[in-house]
Amino acid sequence: MTTTSLTGQVLHPTDAGYDEARSVWNAMVDRRPALIVRCGTVTDVVNAIRHAREHDLEIGVRCGGHSVLGLAVPAGGLMIDLTPMGGVTVDPRTRRARVQGGALLGALDRAAQRHGLATTAGNVSHTGVGGLTLGGGMGWLARRFGLSCDNVVSFEVVTADGALVTASRTEHPELFWGLRGGGGNFGIVTSFEFQLHEIGTRALLASYLFDPADGVAVLEGWRELNAVAPREATYFASIGADGVDVGFVWVGDPERGRRLTRDLAGLGRTRRETVREMSYLDLQTIDDAVDGHHFRRYWKGLYLDRLPAEAAAALVERGDGAEALRPTMSLQAYGGAIQDVPEDEAAYGQRGTLFELVAAARWDDPAEDADRMAAARSAVAPLTAYSSGMYLNTLSDEGAAGVRRAFPPAKLARLAALKRSYDPANVFHLNQNIAPA
Ligand SMILES: Cc1cc2nc3c(=O)[nH]c(=O)nc-3n(C[C@H](O)[C@H](O)[C@H](O)COP(=O)(O)OP(=O)(O)OC[C@H]3O[C@@H](n4cnc5c(N)ncnc54)[C@H](O)[C@@H]3O)c2cc1C
Description:
By secondary structure, the chain is of the alpha+beta class. It is built from 15 helices and 19 strands. A hairpin with a 5-residue loop joins β8 (152-158) and β9 (164-168). Flavin-adenine dinucleotide binds at residues 25, 61-67, 71-72, 82, 101, 122-124, 127-128, 130-132, 134-139, 183-184, 188-189, 291, 393-394, 430-431. Residues 29-199 form the FAD-binding PCMH-type domain.
């Protein structure tokens, strides 16, 4: 048997830096790979895949490490750590960015904003471009410019047999289709080429906290304001122990955004009002601390296609767990340019979504694990009646049933056929897996 030598920085369990490299965002994830290969080049990635296959080691692929299940970390397997490949270069003339496969969102935002440019990226800057884009990629610019995956012009990918291919509209077009929403199933992306947009550098955040007793009426009013909102505005809501917080983020001239605030403030008696102008870069890091590392985490996500009063009541209720254990329920509005993209254009499967819901639990004490997870499940259960599906990137422990809810059946069948072409042995299976058909 041939043996491919590993290149890059190879970490064994006894090496300094091993524990740091295997830690990911969710502190519940405590798995020990046999080897971690910190890849700095495409060749390192190719060699790592070949070596893992020759030695029958399961492969985990790490970019930002934000998969809630910690899918990047294989127990006893080989973890391909892309974080040394974190570079971003921007060409302001063509408005394109080249982003290495291990880059974090913050690196992309910073490099693009030097030129007043940006593309859709998520809301927390330490999330990976890799996982986020491959599963879709929702952010404050999506209602204007589509999801992150809609803004990819080409991918450079190492496939399961170690070949380096470019996927674009003209090269490997079916792979290009599948990588835009089908997750990490088809290969390891070593470089993304993104279309950027001129957005300036300014943003506005407006949020109003209301008493939970007024929560249903407030959410219904907020839903109606969202229905007529310009694309620069992305409405959000966050329902937690301190009340019902509704608002919007505006990217662009803050003065225009301010015009929307009066209607929101008028939804009821506010307990707290926040209207803040800030730079786009500050907006993109504002949740970095609250969504920081080292906590135990559990998420349950759903896509909602309507929000009647009964659903609003369930959101305000937040399940039947003890109050201190109930999750925070967050909603973010979709629509706009996300829906302009034809359904068949990319693998991403849920363009008709009205709101994305995430029930998020965060705690420290392992003794609370079971109760926290049960409370989050009970908070989301009554809302499934209003759900059109699920977002691949916020699936947690739903398994194959969750993947089936992320795609319409015909799309899932097309993805399974693509998987058969590019990864028939299911080498890349530590992900929200699409089995080869
Ligand atoms: C705090 C936080 C905030 C978030 N905010 C948003 C948001 O605003 N919008 C949104 O859409 N989502 C958001 N998400 C969800 C996020 O998109 C997913 O958790 C995503 O999987 C994270 O990607 P990652 O690269 O950080 O994670 P990782 O755990 O490193 O990777 C997850 C999976 O993606 C695949 N993968 C990653 N990189 C590559 C690559 N280069 N090539 C091939 N496969 C790869 C692998 O299968 C891997 O298992 C958020 C998650 C968290 C924890």
